[in-house]
Design goal:
By secondary structure, the protein is of the alpha/beta class. The chain contains 13 helices and eight strands. The strands form two sheets. The protein has a four-stranded parallel beta sheet with strand order 3-2-1-4, with helices on both faces. Strands 5, 6, 7 and 8 form a four-stranded mixed beta sheet that branches. Helix 2 (30-42) crosses helix 9 (164-173).
Length: 315
């Protein structure tokens, strides 16, 4: 560990001791796991983890939470939520992330105060923390940060200056297996802003991404806009699921689903106008995604796979 990381870690441990007792919003991702790991070393008897379980949580984070929650030596409380019961969140307006973050952490604050009372502490004594880091604090597209500030939630990783790369390096040193877990985001970010989020759409997104993960992909997004599902993936995953070197004519013979082909693709390009080297989903993969999409009432799957881009569809 280099000197800068050592100094940051010492500063973070000192900050946690000053804030204790603490309640950490714990998703199972890299950020909240790193924060929990540090707290388990610095203030194990004054820390509890609070996990929001609901339809927006992706399968990789559900799996990571299940695997990690019993290994950090900290009490864990699971809070069942259903964001879709809030019409303002389900409507998916541009402020959806703000509303969702505020509602979720309001529940965590409520549960954290109950935990403090059970421990014989004044409910207001507990400090609620989230895992936002220095990278998040510097970003301009994080409406959820405003909700945290309004609720008085602290972000000690950001305050100590920790970046995601530094967190991963320390998690690896400590032998915590999710150190290389790909960046994740809630499933609501896959639905185009202004289009309602439904149970069916979330189910389609989850099933599509789970299918691609089973094929060995690590950084993929299944996004829904209007009546179309499209896939984004890292360059490595694009190579795994597409046939970029096959001509349009050759690929057309392997894909026999109307959802993937037609007189005009949903991407807005005629098939004759598409470049022959476009990264096209392999025939059997496109067919499987089409079947999953049809189950959710999504009639089209784009045959063209796109390069993964960070963030949501709010822009």
């Amino acid at each position: 560990m280099d000197r800068d990381a050592y100094e940051k870690l010492a500063a973070l441990e000192g900050l946690l001791r000053a804030l204790a007792p603490v309640a950490i919003g714990f998703s199972g991702g890299v950020d909240s796991t790193f924060l929990a790991a540090v707290a388990s070393r610095a203030i194990p008897d004054q820390t509890a983890l609070f996990h929001l379980a609901g339809p927006f949580v992706s399968t990789p984070e559900r799996t990571a939470f299940a695997e990690l929650s019993g290994t950090l030596g900290l009490p864990v409380r699971t809070i069942e939520v259903d964001q879709l019961t809030d019409p303002a969140i389900a409507a998916n307006a541009p402020d959806r992330c703000y509303r969702c973050k505020r509602a979720g952490f309001a529940r965590i604050i409520e549960e954290a105060r109950a935990w403090a009372a059970e421990c014989g502490l004044a409910p207001e004594a507990v400090c609620v923390l989230d895992g936002s880091n220095a990278d998040d604090a510097a970003a301009t597209d994080r409406p959820g940060m405003r909700a945290l500030a309004e609720l008085g939630v602290r972000s000690p990783l950001a305050e100590a200056g920790f970046t995601k790369a530094e967190e991963r390096a320390l998690l690896r040193t400590w032998g915590i297996p999710i150190w290389n877990m790909p960046a994740g985001a809630c499933l609501a970010t896959r639905v185009a802003t202004g289009e309602s989020i439904t149970t069916e759409k979330l189910g389609c997104i989850r099933a599509a991404e789970d299918f691609l993960h089973e094929l060995g992909c690590t950084q993929v997004r299944a996004r829904i806009e209007g009546d179309e599902l499209r896939i984004e993936a890292s360059p490595e995953d694009l190579a795994r699921i597409t046939t970029a070197g096959i001509t349009i004519e050759a690929e057309r013979t392997t894909v026999k689903t109307e959802a993937c082909h037609g007189e005009k693709h949903r991407d807005g390009m005629n098939t004759d106008d598409e470049p022959a080297k476009a990264p096209r989903l392999s025939g059997n993969i496109c067919a499987r995604l089409s079947a999953l999409a049809h189950e959710a009432g999504i009639p089209y799957v784009s045959p063209i796979a796109h390069l993964y881009r960070r963030g949501s569809m709010n822009h």
